[in-house]
Amino acid sequence: MAITQRRGCRSYITILHQRWGKRESAIAVAGFATVLLTFSFILSSDSSSSDRFSGTGTDAFVRLTLLSNAVQRGAFLESNVKEIQKYDCLDGSVPAYHFQKGFGYGSRRWVLHIEGGGWCNTVASCTFRKTTALGSSKYMDHQVLFSGILSGDQSHNPDFYNWNKVKIRYCDGASFTGHPESERNNDTKLFFRGQLIWEAMMDELLSIGLSNAQEALLSGCSAGGLATLIHCDDFREILPKDARVKCLSDAGFFLNEQDVAGNATIQSFYHDVVHLQGTAGSLKQDCVAKMEPSKCFFPQNFVKSINTPVFFVNPTYDFWQIKNILVPRPADPRGHWHKCHLNIRNCSPEQIEVLQGFRNSFLKALSELQQMKDVGMFINSCYIHCQTWISETWHGPYSPKINNKTIAESVGDWFFERKVSKHIDCPYPCNPTCFHMDFTLHRR
Predict the structure, then answer these.
(1) Is-catalytic flag, 233?
(2) What is the DSSP secondary-structure string of 170-217?
(3) Under a CB-based contact definition with an 8 Å cutoff, are residues 370 and 377 in contact?
């Protein structure tokens, strides 16, 4: 079964490369890396073999729920005519989520996790995306495993195991920021309604108990981690004023850095996403007032204006960012970075030096946040991407640690204000607890 799934992922990516140009496929294709992680988490570690990653027998599968309130909401378009809008995925299908009810102490406490999966920046890439689970609920699994921060196993999720838990599925392609006005700019049946999906999702969750929350944590992975940062203050606003509300971004702090060839690859890509889906209205308005809207898709340009406490989980050697921001395929036409991309241990000393420079840029972007009282962070030196939704990287005897703390322990210390929780790792390869992704086996 696992072999079939891995082959399916490779075929999937090959198809995307055939349909799209080099520039857009270099980033948009790799946005599906989080899906690849779900199917085949082949890891190596400095301290033991990859068979440590075996999954937990107590994590539960939770069924898919379609939004029941995906009816209609008024939205004023450019013509000032009030048209009825639905909250649609890219293909027009109904958005969805997975919900597991809390119990005991956790019955009035909520943890939400927004799925990741990249973005689409052209009509062509969004048209393909709508034929997948990242653009249509028609293709979503009817059940998903709740693990990591969503686990119901106290030994793997000590602080949040009995909370109400929600996994929000991602089907709009723009981190829940698209606006329907932009649909007029394309002649295809694509629905850019991420903002409406977000509002409808929150309305439904409020109706089933979120409105009575005493404590709530909004989290997300990758593109979902970016969505968490974008909507963090909105989330705080809809909950009771006396509730403890915070946000956690996992691998969602994407850097605005030039690639190794000196090109602004990720900036150009985000520019296309923002303008295709008309996302400016969902971005931080104080940022949009100062700079071109697509630059406000980069957390480094808006996180200081987030008023709600935020925790950042990020590796400084994030494989997605290295492969798509620092060294995208067009910037390495002769494939000098190919082996390094597959496994960080394959990198030459010169390549490691480049990676250390990227790490320095990442830490510089975080430097002011380190001084902020309500900000927490767990910034490790692993070659990985998302780490909170997998039990083995979230909390376990072999999980990545900094200062002898797992990610779960660090997040718990910050959320419950047990102690200051700002953990920054030493440079690679100093941390023996790291999980490092090894893609070599995927190429066989």
Answers:
(1) no
(2) --SSSSS---GGGGGG-SS-----HHHHHHHHHHHHHHTTGGG-SEEE
(3) yes
Catalytic residue list contains 318: yes
Average pLDDT, the chain: 86
Instruction: Tell me which of 159, 172, 272, 318 is the catalytic residue.
Output: 318
Q: What is the pTM of this model?
A: 0.88
Burial class (CB in 10 A: 0-12, 13-18, 19+), 72: exposed
Task: Tell me: cis bond preceding 429? Omega within 30 of 0 counts.
Answer: yes
The tens digit of pLDDT for each residue in 333-361 reads 999 999 999 999 999 999 999 999 999 99
Banded model confidence at residue 70, pLDDT cuts 50, 70, 90: low
Q: Are 86 and 195 in contact (CB under 8 A)?
A: no
With both helix axes pointing from N to C terminus, report the angle between 223-237 and 194-207 in degrees, rounded to the nearest 10.
50
Residue 74 neighbours by CB distance under 10 Å: 8
Q: Tokens 């996790």, residue?
A: 113
- Which pair of structure tokens corresponds to residue 97? 């989520």
The residue from 98, 385, 395, 423 that is catalytic is 385
Tokens of 408: 């779960």
Catalytic residue among 222, 282, 381, 391: 222
The confidence score (pLDDT) of residue 56 equals 47
What is the dihedral angle through the alpha carbons of 25, 31, 32, 35, rounded to the nearest 10 degrees?
170
Coil, strand or helix at 340: helix
